[in-house]
Write a structure and sequence with these properties.
CATH architecture of the largest domain: Orthogonal Bundle
Strand order of the largest sheet: 1-3-2
CATH class of the largest domain: Mainly Alpha
Helix content: 55-70%
Shape: elongated
Order of helices and strands: HEHHEEHHHH
Distance between the termini: 59 Å
CATH topology of the largest domain: Arc Repressor Mutant, subunit A
Structural class: mainly alpha
CATH superfamily of the largest domain: Winged helix-like DNA-binding domain superfamily/Winged helix DNA-binding domain
Radius of gyration: 21 Å
Largest sheet: 3 strands, antiparallel
Number of strands: 3
Number of helices: 7
């Protein structure tokens, strides 16, 4: 991997899983599924295989043949260079906020093209879905807490709740503005 290359988020997730212990690609896929990582990473089974090959060529992971569950499998492990690259990227991710692109921003920007009442109705449905999302993340946190999950991993399921609650506050403010403009 060239020095100019920055690890992608999915590469970071993959290297993070390999930092726990050496694993074969299928086990990584099971870990992603069991930990519900698809909700916050771009890892799919096909992505895992492709990225493992790329990371291996870059010298960030090693591979060895092993027999797992009676089958020959290629087992991947993190190299020292891979661990260094992972640590560097993690520090960068922790320090730099990302600017997500959301469909709601496109709709808000063009909200003047639909009747205000219809926009308010749609936003109220959106708000309800945000509340459902909060309940889902709360249930996930409860489950993970029962499994004595480490605090840094619990933080991953707490953060979306905070974001969704902030989004609800924004929706409430915007709906009030639309209603006020409609009544004026």
């Amino acid at each position: 991997m060239s020095p100019e290359h920055t690890l992608t988020n999915s590469e970071v997730a993959l290297l993070g899983l390999l930092s726990e212990k050496a694993k074969h690609a299928y086990q990584i896929g099971r870990d992603v599924e069991h930990r519900d990582m698809r909700s916050w990473t771009d890892l799919s089974q096909s992505t895992i295989y492709r990225q493992l090959t790329s990371l291996h060529k870059a010298g960030l992971v090693d591979s060895a043949q092993d027999v797992v569950d009676g089958r020959a499998r290629k087992v991947y492990s993190l190299t020292d260079a891979g661990l260094d690259a992972l640590r560097d990227r993690l520090l960068g991710l922790l320090a730099e906020p990302e600017s997500p692109t959301w469909g709601i921003d496109l709709a808000t920007y063009n909200a003047n093209l639909v009747p205000a009442k219809d926009a308010v109705d749609a936003l109220e449905r959106y708000r309800g879905k945000l509340q459902e999302g909060i309940a889902c993340w709360e249930a996930t946190e409860k489950y993970m807490s029962s499994c004595t999950c480490p605090k840094h991993r619990l933080a991953v399921v707490r953060r979306p709740r905070y974001l969704l609650k902030a989004e609800i506050r924004w929706v409430d403010d915007f709906v009030a503005e639309l209603k006020e403009a409609h009544d004026a």
